[in-house]
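W.,

You were right to be curious about this one. When I first looked at the sequence I had no strong expectations either way, so I just let the prediction run and decided to look at it fresh. Below is the sequence, 103 residues in total, followed by the output.
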Amino acid sequence: MARGGGPELSEHEGLAQFVGRFPDAQSVHVVGSFNDWRPRSLPLEDQNHDGVWRTTVVLPAGIYEYMFVVDGERWVPDHLAERLVADEFGRENSVVIVRPVRR
């Protein structure tokens, strides 16, 4: 861990923050090109029990597509993302750009 309590990052890594509002959800996960679209590998937390789910992930710098998986079955794009792109299944994926923390 770095002195500020956060993760230690290499010069080619950055932080991706994922936030979604799902007030009635029991679970929310983020899936994407950074984790081979595995549905249960990156959970979000609703620490305040206010329906806002969030997590921060260390990723190599790059451009990634992602979606939220709500309650293990509903795949939802992040409409607050930098942009959305069509996928080969006729849905829209959200896009996050991870920039290196150090230059």
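Here's what jumped out at me. The chain has one domain: 13-98. And, maybe more interesting for your project: The beta strands are 13-21, 28-32, 52-60, 62-70, 74-76, 83-86, 92-98.

Coffee later to discuss?

I.
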